[in-house]
Amino acid sequence: MILKRISLHNFRNISSKNFDISPHLTIILGENAQGKTNILESIHCIINGIGFRESKEEELLLIESSETQLDGLFEKDNNQHHFRVHLKKEKNG
């Protein structure tokens, strides 16, 4: 499967962003603490259902947000496959 596109909503420090992924080469550039690793973690989360750095799912959400949604568009044999991860913060009390 080839990753074609990811869409992030309220994921870590990214409020809402879409990324088109080239099948040949994709370069992620940016200053420190601007979200480069968060993009990689979002791909990991879409594939595996959990992040690779955080022990609690709530830590993947944008601060002050109650939920996050990650969408991945993959292609295999000219067929498109959509994967979605939706995490929602539990209410205390």
TrEMBL record:
Signal peptide: none annotated. One of its GO terms (biological process) is double-strand break repair. GO terms for molecular function: ATP hydrolysis activity. It holds the Pfam family AAA_23. Gene3D superfamilies: P-loop containing nucleotide triphosphate hydrolases (3.40.50.300). Residues 5-91 form the Rad50/SbcC-type AAA domain. This is Rad50/SbcC-type AAA domain-containing protein. It comes from Candidatus Roizmanbacteria bacterium CG03_land_8_20_14_0_80_39_12.
